[in-house]
Amino acid sequence: MDLMDIQAPPEGTYAEADGVKYHYVELGEGSATVFLHGGGPGCTGWADFGQVARLFATERRCLLVDILQYGKSAKPVIEGPMWDYHAAKTVALLDELGVDRADFVCNSWGGTIALNLAAKYPERVRSLVITGSMPVFYGPLAPLPEGGRRGRNARDVYYGGTGPSWQKMRELIARLEWFDPAAIPDGTVTLRYEQSLDPEETALAGASDNPRGDWQDLTAELGQIAAPTLFLWGMQDAFLTPDYPLMLARMIPKGNLHVMSEASHHPQEERPYDYHSVVSGFLNQQHN
After folding, report:
1. Which of 141, 88, 142 is nearest to 117 (CA)?
2. Which of 28, 171, 261, 276 is the most exposed place for a label (fewest CB within 10 A)?
3. What are the CA-CA distances from residue 144 to residues 1, 136, 140, 204, 236 (Å)?
4. What is the pTM of this model?
5. Which residue ranges does the record assign to the AB hydrolase-1 domain (predicted)?
């Protein structure tokens, strides 16, 4: 199968969790594995992980979750610490789905949620795989690009000016998420663009106040994470160079780092077979 050509998303399922509605896609059977996507415009569980989850689903119960404020999940205004809010609601979703303990495979925004969840609810996390996430606001060697605001600035550009367009979405993915712009499938661009037009999502992007909650630095939390953690990073990640996840891996007691060549912020989409090989090897090791 050609994993680069993403299929139309399945209908998925809804679940009520602690007063909010989550949308998720479920594939396969076996050990529960939760996939949490990134925070770019139009990102969803399926858009970020739909291709590669089909590989994991041959031996795992894959739950591709739309994070709150994204996809078909509820879009509440968040007050208070943002990562604490997301972690608590995600745990409520696990309760609703009958998942006592899970592996988490996450990109960017979703990875920061999972890291906080692992620190605050250690009994719920078997292991973590984190790509392109920014749980702390400093780097070991150089200042973070655009003061750590590159993602938020890109969102402002995408929704600003003449507003969203298919071409602007392709340019965003090419500049920030993929190593090889020529390899970006049109289907991926279309999927992200169409979701980015969701009226509630557009309203959140344009809000002048802070509907996403208060930003948290997770320095203290990283040292509390007991779960084995793999940071899988693209060598050419446009947000955070590989010295950053090396620092994170040293802050977590069971931290590991794999750097993948010819990959940027979404290696699970750019190199799905290689991503699956590395990640499944790490996850299976935790079950032995």
Report:
1. 88
2. 261
3. 38, 10, 9, 25, 14
4. 0.97
5. 34-272
State how far the alpha carbon of 272 is from the alpha carbons of 48, 58, 75, 108, 140, in Å.
11, 14, 30, 17, 29
Q: What is the pLDDT of residues 52-76, one digit of tens each?
A: 999 999 999 999 999 999 999 999 9
Tokens of 106: 């996450």
Residue type at 60 in one-letter notation = R
Rounded to an integer, what distance in angstroms lies between the CA atom of residue 188 and that of residue 236?
20
Contact 65, 35 (CB under 8 A): yes
Query: Would you call 157 helix, strand, or coil by DSSP?
Result: helix
- Give buried/exposed letters for 251-261 (b at 16+ CB in 10 A, else e): bbeebebbbbe
Give the DSSP letter of residue 223: T
Residues above pLDDT 90, as percent of the chain: 90
Nearest to 71 by CA among 109, 43, 36, 113: 43
As a whole number of angstroms, the distance between CA 5 and CA 188 comes to 8
